[in-house]
Amino acid sequence: MYIIGIYDVNKKRVGKIKKLFDRYMFWTQNSVFEGKLTKVQLRELRNKLDGIIDPEEDQVIFYQLGNQKWLNKTILGKQVDDDPPNFI
Amino acid sequence: MYIIGIYDVNKKRVGKIKKLFDRYMFWTQNSVFEGKLTKVQLRELRNKLDGIIDPEEDQVIFYQLGNQKWLNKTILGKQVDDDPPNFI
After folding, report:
1. Is residue A76 part of a domain?
2. Which of A53, A63, A76 is opposite residue B71, by nearest beta carbon?
3. Residue B11 pLDDT
4. What element of type H or E holds B62?
5. Does residue A26 sit within a domain?
6. Is residue B52 situated within a structural domain?
């Protein structure tokens, strides 16, 4: 599956959440990650996220696609950073 | 087409860009919009964005799908806000 993961979380938790996403997917833009995951990997990532986020304050959205070919991606402005900023 | 639009832009331009997206798509999360657009509407939105963003600083990404049915969306934590915050 191809996954786009986006998050809007309290500043206190952004660092931890970004580090976790970094282990499963690649950074695309602030609070946005993409990548291919198996069902098992996605479940693993979701369970770990559930252990970090505050469901009252934070939100993570996963867009799942059966096949990356169904997705057409266009970028306006700054093209993809080769080395994404390491700031959180 | 079903479109997910995400942006990472200079604070000076966030308000203008959010207002423009609001006219074409619905707010999903900070800097994230979704919605159905025709090719003409998407081209129109892109041209208007090109007139606002600074290509050196700002980035807008459009994920286009031929059909919304191909997309599976799951939300962890805070569910969709009924009335999205009007702060920018």
Report:
1. no
2. A63
3. 95
4. strand B59-65
5. yes
6. yes
Query: What is the per-residue pLDDT across A18-53, written as a single tens digit (0 to 9) for each?
Result: 999 999 999 999 999 999 999 999 999 999 999 999
Residue A8 pLDDT grade (very low, low, confident, very high; cuts 50, 70, 90): very high
ipTM of the complex: 0.86
Ranges of residues in chain B with a pLDDT under 50 are 82-88
Q: How far apart are CA A23 and CA B34, in angstroms?
A: 27
CATH number, position B9:
3.30.70.240
Number of domains in chain B: 1
Q: Which of residues 27-46 of A touch B (CB under 8 A)?
A: 28-32, 46
Amino acid at A45: L
- Could you tell me if B76 and A59 are in contact, meaning their C-beta atoms sit under 8 angstroms apart? yes
**Minimum distance, in Å, between the CA of residue A59 and any CA atom of chain B:** 5
Nearest CB among A6, A54, A76 relative to B29 is that of A6
Angle (CA) B75-B79-B83 rounded to 5° is 135
- The parent domain of residue B6 ranges over 2-66
What mean pLDDT value characterizes chain A? 90
